[in-house]
Specification:
SMAD_FHA_dom_sf, four-stranded antiparallel beta sheet, mainly beta, Tumour Suppressor Smad4
């Protein structure tokens, strides 16, 4: 019974019993380091020693603080080198600074010459 209007509320679901509305999730890209640690990347994320993935990358001093940017466009993922000193490679092909290159699952990304990551989609 409602304490305000004295109406029957026995058929009304309690808030915690109500299903949550579906949550919108943005697509993520997983980068797996050779030690098995994962870096979770979202559209627009910058990866580096003081950026996304710092907990995995900070020990690699030749990787730039802000090394690469990942973007998602039309359902595809892209990587872009951010003018790094020690370069970025996709499957042993050096990236040109500022040029976005499409990446796919199982490709190997090398940041500097020190850190290899495998793309997991």
């Amino acid at each position: 019974m409602c304490v305000r209007c004295l109406g029957d509320i026995s058929g009304v679901a309690v808030e915690e019993d109500m299903p949550s509305p579906p949550q919108e999730t943005s697509p993520v890209l997983v980068l797996r380091a050779s030690d098995g640690k994962d870096i979770i990347v979202r559209d627009g994320d910058v990866v580096g020693r003081v950026a996304v993935g710092a907990d995995v990358i900070e020990q690699y001093k030749t990787v730039s603080r802000r090394h690469v940017r990942f973007t998602r466009q039309d359902g595809n993922w892209y990587i872009e080198d951010l003018n790094t000193t020690n370069d970025t490679y996709v499957d042993d092909v050096r990236l040109s600074v500022g040029k976005k290159v499409q990446i796919a699952g199982n490709q190997r990304l090398t940041l500097s010459s020190a850190l290899e990551l495998t793309v997991v989609i």
